[in-house]
Amino acid sequence: MRRTVFLIFSLFTCLTGSSQYYFEGQIADQQSEKTIYLSIIEDYRKFGRISMEQILKKTTTDSLGYFKFEGDNLNDDNRIYRIHLDDCADNATHSEHFFGNCEYSRSILFIANNNDTVTFPTSFANQVLCEITSTNSTSAAFLNIDVLKEEMAFDFNEFRSNANKKLNSKKWFNTLQKYGKDLNEPLAELYIFNFLSDKRNETYDYYLKDIGSNTYYTDLGERLESKYADASFTDLYLNEIAIDQQLVNKNAPNTNFWKWLLPILLLLSIILNIYLVLRQRRNSHNLQNESLAKLTEQENNIVQQILENKTNKEIAAIMFISVSTVKTHINNIYKKLAVTSRDEIKQRF
Q1: DSSP secondary structure of 115-176
Q2: Confidence of residue 29 (pLDDT cuts 50, 70, 90)
Q3: First to last CA, the chain
């Protein structure tokens, strides 16, 4: 009977063309007067928390466990909503009740707008708030993403090695980002981003590496600005991305610096070596001139003969002097140049 009424209501809504949402579901058989909340999530960092500031409406289940929310006061554009079953005891005052996490409390996130009809049927195992049927094709996106996250967790836990973590990080970042982008719904991508960039998750280290080289994050910001320009979560995302990218760039080594440093050092080394060689030659030339200035013409002639490896006897014959005179000149050369052998004379000149 209720299904028939629901179908008639949906048909009437379509025919009249009025803008009105209708969210209905069943939590379980024979559970009446259970409190159900409808909330809107504007801050994607609060997907896992329930606060009073998010709540739009509340209702109670009827005698068969059914509940419904209807009206025309939601956004015409898609937003993220939560249906939350508060199953805490009426007199509960502990923190679990405050955060809506009592033992049997249940909640579900979904995407919808002011024109959507969404139902939350119980599953075949009588599980509540775990299935979605909607006129909006993206309403159940979070449920499908959660399935991918479970597969990702299995891959990570299969082998707890750094190699496996690195390999699976790259694989699942690409998989989840591509899945979100293909949905053509940036809200679903925010749900994925919130998970991948969560500092409490093992994905955070890879996120810091990925954000420094992957244009996906900038592209997502552009998609959010295009579709949800005035939404608070768009500003939140853009600010967070800007801070994270600045943090990564600050901590990352400056590749351009090292790219230019090595060639510059090589060039400086070449210039330094050329300078040292030229200075050595200049000093050697100055030393030769100073040494030659100390010698007489005859002694200079003998030095030239020594440089040509002539013996004392050969020098005497060439210069028409005696061998003893040659020896006397050579001893004088040694004293003036402060050397002790022919080899030192050759090194000097």
Answers
A1: T-EEEE---TT---S---EESSTTTTHHHHHHHHHHHHHHHHHH--SHHHHHHHHHHHHHHH
A2: low
A3: 119
Choice between 138 and 326, residue whose per-residue pLDDT is larger: 138
Q: How confident is the model at residue 90 (pLDDT cuts 50, 70, 90)?
A: low
SS3 breakdown of the chain: % helix, strand, coil, rounded to 5?
55, 15, 30
Phi-psi region of 261 (alpha: psi -120 to 50; beta: other; left: phi over 0): alpha
CA distance 61 to 122: 14
pTM over 0.70: no
Count other Cβ atoms within 10 Å, centred on residue 239: 10
**Per-residue pLDDT reduced to its tens digit, 316-331:** 888 888 888 888 888 8
Longest dimension (CA), the chain: 143
Collapsed DSSP state (helix, strand, coil) of residue 199: coil
CA–CA separation, 301 and 280 (whole Å): 25
106: Cβ contacts below 8 Å, ≥ 6 apart: 27, 84, 85, 87, 128, 129
Residue type, 268: L
Task: Please choose, from the candidates 159, 170, 219, the residue with its C-alpha nearest in 3D space to the C-alpha of residue 196.
Answer: 170
Give the DSSP per-residue string, 53-105: GGEEEEEE--TTSEEEEEES-S-SS-EEEEEEEE---TT--SHHHHTT--TT-
d(CA 211, CA 177): 12
